[in-house]
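Write out the bound-state structure for zinc ion.
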Amino acid sequence: MSEPLILGIESSCDETGVALVRGRELLANDVASSVEQHARFGGVVPEVASRAHLEAMVPTLERACAAAGVDLDDIDAIAVTAGPGLMGALVVGVSAAKALALALDKPLYGVNHLGAHVAVDLLDTGELPVPAIALLVSGGHTSLLKVDHLTDAGGITELGATIDDAAGEAYDKVARLLGLGYPGGPVIDKLATEGDPRAIRFPRGLTARHDLVKHRFDFSFSGLKTAVARWVETAELEGREIPVADVCASFQEAVCDVLSAKAVDACREHGITTLLLGGGVAANSRLRALLGERCAEHGITLRRPRPGLCTDNGAMIAVLGAELVKAGQPESGLAFGAHSGLPVSRVLV
Ligand code: KG4
Ligand code: ZN
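---
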């Protein structure tokens, strides 16, 4: 008998994602992004994101079913992001998933978005050797996780996280102050290739000896963002032309240096040889290269799902749902709510 067909629904930020997965086979993965509607604000506006989810949910579901060649009646279980994320945005996905579960009389699993970022790698690379370390970097989150088990409560623990801005948020804010538009990651990534990463020595947050005591695996990017702003302001006041490519390259180097150093340190200190990268910033060329070099130096295997699966999508939710069903975990039922601050230790609500 074939494995159950799982529908996954994601709506925690600005991407409406709907996917169909059978076991670890991805049948369809449709994403509608509201990123363009947020561009003029330089970041995601929660109310705008919620409304966009509402408009996109049914068409995205229809496209995913058509692409997979399945009817709603064929679905065996539904998984939806229960948190963490933007409250209004989460509620749209959770409500849609509950309506479907009720109408189709199928089990419903409310799953953790961060756990799903880790699980998505199963679709590309297969079984994840555990324990593993996961570095999740996006516009909404930046965390280092220890993964002992994907489907058990407490199977994932947070070793550290950003204490202020997420890495992607820092890219977006720096791009904004340089007048490069939104989202900032891709454009800074591209401009940085033409600049000198050693031109300006920007600060590496939480890497000083005293910070490493309390914040061993935490990150901070707001000081870096301010340092870039000050540097640009000073240059402008002095009437100098801003060397945009050098600023981008030097800023990017500071971000990628800290992210890769702490991720590799986490692996070494825990005696772990598998590192998994996820989130929108995982598409960054410098982060991929630097992490690749540093992992190779220390005998660490780097797992990096394709960029389309690193950004928020329904496939990650569906595959985690499939693993939960396979592990015999109890369904969430219809009585749960969205949890904007759901801790990573709770894989299922
Ligand atoms: O995972 P994602 O699509 O959405 C969430 O924030 O959850 O990540 C979006 C973030 C944005 O901040 C964007 O600027 C950043 O990922 N990003 C990048 C690159 N591509 C996207 N950052 C650096 N380099 C990139 N190539
Ligand atoms: Zn995410």
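---
The CA atoms of residues 32 and 295 lie 34 Å apart.
The mean pLDDT is 96.
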